[in-house]
Amino acid sequence: MELLERYVQAVAHYLPAEQKQDIMRELRANLLDELESLEIDASNPKDIQALTTFMQRLDHPQRIAQSYAPQYPLVASEDMGLYKTIVLKGLLVLFVYAVVTAGSYLINAQSVNAIAFLFVVLSSVWDNIGGMLIIITATFYLLGKSGYLAQWRYPSWNPESLPPTNAQRISTSEGISDVITSVFGLLLLWTPLWLNEEAYNSLILGIAPNMEQWRIILTIVMAGSLIAAIYRLTQAYWTKLSKSVYIAEYLVYIAVMLILWRSPVLFEITSPAAIELMPFVNGLFTHGWLFSAGVFMFIAASEVRKWHKL
Fold first, then answer.
1. Is 228 strand, coil or helix?
2. What SS3 state is found at 302?
3. I want to staple 202 with a disulfide (CB 3.0 to 4.6 A). Which of 30, 104, 173, 274 is the partner?
4. Residue 163 falls inside a structural domain
5. d(CA 310, CA 255)
6. Full domain range(s) for residue 123
7. What angle do CA 216, 218, 221 make, to 5 degrees?
C-alpha cells in the first residue's frame, strides 16, 4: 500500500494546488479498482511482487498529472503559424528601428564605417529581441488561456453559414501580416509625430521637400489597406467582392510605385555627414520602386487567378 501511496504523492507534486486533493482521490480510487480487477491486494505483503510489476507498467507521474490537469502551453499548436508571423514582423520592426538608431549614432560620431554600422545594428536587435519575444509569448499565453484565441479561431456557426465547396479561406497569418505592415508603414511616414525632436533631427533619410505631398498620398493608401486588412480578419472566407478589393489594393500600390519610379527621388539624405551616400540612395530607390512593382504585379496576377475560381 505504501508503494501505491508514494506513486499518488509523486503525481501530486505536478498538480495545481486547487485540484490536487480531488485528483489524488480519483487517481487512488482508479488504481485500487485496477488492482482489484487483477486480484492484487496492495496491503498484503505476499502480493508485493505483483504490485511492483503493476506499478512498473504505469506511466511517469508527471505524464499522469498532465493527463488529469493539462497545462496550457505558452503557444498552442493551432496558433503557432500566427505566432511565427508576428515574431518575424517584430524582428523586421526591430531591424528597421536598429538601422535608424545606428545611422543616427554614426552620424553623431561623424563616421560612416560600414562595419561599425553593422555592429551597432546587430547589437540593437540583440538587446531588444528578448523583450519582444517575452511580450509576444506572454500575450499569446494569456489570450489563449482565457479562451479569446479559441473564440477567434472557432466562432459560432450554423449550417446555413457553411461556405460553398469552392470557397477559399482567408489566412489569419496573412491578415495579421497585412495589418502590421500597414501600421509599420504609417509609423515610418509620420516619424515627426512620435520621435522626439533630437532623434528626428538625427535621422539620415527624410522625405524630400518637393515630394512632401506624397506623405499624404501614401498615408491615404496605407490607411485604406489597414482598414481592409482589419475587416478581412473578421471574415473566414473570400468573396468575389473582398477578393476584388484585395486585388485593387495591389493595383493601387503598383500605380504608386510606377509613378514614384518616374518621379524625382522621394527620399533624400538629411545629414551633411552622409551626403556622399546620395547617389547610392537615388539608385536604390529608383530601381527599388520598379522591382517592387514587378513583384506586386506577379502577386496581383496570382490573386486574379484565385478570383476566377471563386
1. helix
2. helix
3. 104
4. no
5. 26
6. 73-154
7. 110
